[in-house]
Structures are given as C-alpha cells and as structure tokens.
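Hi there,

I know you've been waiting on this one. I reran it after we fixed the sequence typo, so this is the corrected version. Both the input and the resulting structure follow.
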Amino acid sequence: MDAVVKSFPKPAAAAEKPLSDHVRAAPAPAVPRPVVPPEFDALPIWAMTAPKLVAWYEPKDGGAHNVWVAADTLYLGDYQGGLRVVDVSGELRGDLQQQGREIAHVATGDGQGKVPNAPLTWGAIYRNGLVYVPDMNSGLWVVKVEGSAVGVP
C-alpha cells in the first residue's frame, strides 16, 4: 500500500515543518494522556441487536477519536499520535494494525504549538480529496493523501 502524504502551507505567521514521502516524526515529549477509549472497533451493522467484535484498530500512542470513512479508507484522529489513515477494504477480521492496514500517519505536533511538539488531535474530516485535522495544540492541518490504496467516494 503506497501512499504519499502532502501538506498544504499554513499561514505565513506559522512555522511549517516539511513532510517527506515517508511521513514519520520523532516521538513527542511525554505529556499527560487523557483517559480515552484506546481503539476503534468494527461491528457488523446487521448485528446491532447482538453486537460481536470482528475487527479493531488500536493506535499505540493515543486513543481513537472522531473517525471518518470515505470509500474503503478510514481517517482517524489519534489524540497523541496525529492523523492515522487505515485501509478498511474487504472483510475486516482481527487486529487491523497488525495486518499492516495503516496507509499513512501524520504526527501533528509542532514546535510552535500550545504544547510544543505534542499532538492533541481531535479528529479527521475527509472532504473532496482533503483531510482536515484539527489539533488542539497546533491548529488545523489540511492534508492530502494520494496513492492506489486510498479510496475515493
């Protein structure tokens, strides 16, 4: 699953860190973590009267919050981890992270943030090929993820 993550420039007043084709950032400094549900769970919609867990995706550095699905791609706000983009195509069974379904990751911490270099990502909203990623420490990120594995609704 090859994906390219592109960032769009922030206003001139904000410092911009360049993103490369292989988007990874050094771990943010330790900050207190809120108590949050640690994972995203997939439940079959036909089983809502007797739900049974069939698949899950658990970020290693935060908690899943405010997810968005477009076509076969899940966009997830990962509190201390930033934006996570996950392939949810086909049959979902078991641990999606262990299966290598993560397409892209953008750590949204910024040295100029309210808490420097510490992401606090609230969610991810997909619209017209762009992902809007509100981060409570560093502001709004606008990201475009391209690649054969990224679904288009």
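Quick highlight: Confidence is low (pLDDT under 50) at residues 6-37.

Best,
R. S.
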